[in-house]
Amino acid sequence: MEEMNNEREFFTLTDEEGNEVEFELIGSVDLNGNTYYAMIPADAADKAQEADDGFCEYVILRVEKDEDGEYTLVSVDDDDEFDDVADRFDDMFSEEIDYD
Fold it and tell me: Which domain does 56 fall in, by range?
């Protein structure tokens, strides 16, 4: 993935029912030879500012190459893998918070 120099990066994803939803990339980590993206729905940042706690949930997707060599984003179905990646993202995001 190219670095965007502080520009926001968006992806249009298709869910199981065929609905397209736009997501914003908020972070990525490499773990155990895989790359994972943390993403929020594109309108979630606006909704989080309206919420009392300012928090919005994010989804975690793994980057994989398909049989044609194209990169795709897939759900993390293994609970242990998901927990490991979620812990890494939680640590990363908590480091970004300025408590002062």
Answer: 10-96
